[in-house]
Amino acid sequence: YHAKLERDRISTYSPALDVNSVDRLQLLADLRVAIDTGQLDVAYQVQVDLTSGHVVAVEALIRWRHPQRGPVAPDDFIPLAENSGLIAELTSYVLDNALAALAGWRAAGHDLRMSVNLSTRHLSDLALPRQVAEALARHGVEPGALVLEVTETGILSDPARVDVVIAALREQGVAIAVDDYGTGHASLGYLKRLEIDELKVDRSFVSDMRRNHQDFVIVRSTIALARDLGLRVVAEGIEDADTARSLAELGCDVGQGYHLGRPTSAAEIVARLSDERRAAGAAAAARIVPGR
Ligand code: C2E
Ligand code: MG
Ligand code: MG
Ligand code: MG
């Protein structure tokens, strides 16, 4: 009897999948602990004006340093959190940290925006606009300085509710960006229906656009589309100077990527902003003092 059970188990479940799901359960249990014991952190990646070279915005990216496994990628644990109800806690953790950091930078005179990623689930959560409003008020950040990044998959998930949630956020003055633009299988109808502020061209088109003609055409027409619709366009995944230059020539407003700055700590962002200010001050002084 036991042998039969064993045989059935083996024939019904792929051992690899089984191990995988046990692993996922363990990771999920660990994630609950991580939230309570401070293993989570937020990294920040700059977004740069491709014409002036100045930092104009920062994207908050969650980080998890697991005590045994080391760093776990967001793509590996965000989906787990989404399917377990932990995502609300994760998002409010990131939002709080990001807004606290932003409030400090803005108080120091750096006129930046902060982008925070929303999970697909949140977009149909009618309580979200109020949570966001409360977080902004708590940190004294004006709504226009916050950009919430959503994906096309999120927009498609529950259109009736998503429309209400996005409209309520925009009513408050919060900006909405479509992240990973071009990868989500959504028809373009939402660009007409929803008030969107920003398109982020997906890294998969940007990284190879100088070598792959299809990618180049997709990036070029996305930039043109965004500009004609009056949207800000941000290119993700810029890994070299030539790509940054091409994008600027195509009229792309803002860039993000390893070439412009890797995700890093809030302290490193502050150092970069101070360097930028010092350089701008020196340039202004050089213009005023003749002969310098
Ligand atoms: P995303 O929002 O599209 O974020 C950009 C991702 O690309 C980040 O990966 C970033 O580190 C990476 N990246 C930036 N520049 C380059 C580059 O030049 N080359 C390459 N190869 N990669 C670059 P990360 O931090 O691993 O995040 C992956 C995804 O996880 C994010 O994609 C976002 O969808 C999700 N995520 C991250 N943080 C959060 C969060 O706080 N909440 C939610 N809901 N999702 C998050
Ligand atoms: Mg993003
Ligand atoms: Mg993206
Ligand atoms: Mg992504």
UniProtKB/TrEMBL annotation:
Biological classification of the source: Bacteria, Bacillati, Actinomycetota, Actinomycetes, Micrococcales
Superkingdom field: Bacteria
Record protein name field: GGDEF-domain containing protein
Shown chain mapped onto the complete sequence: 382 to 673 of 673
Organism annotation: Cellulomonas aerilata
Residues annotated as domain EAL: 24-277
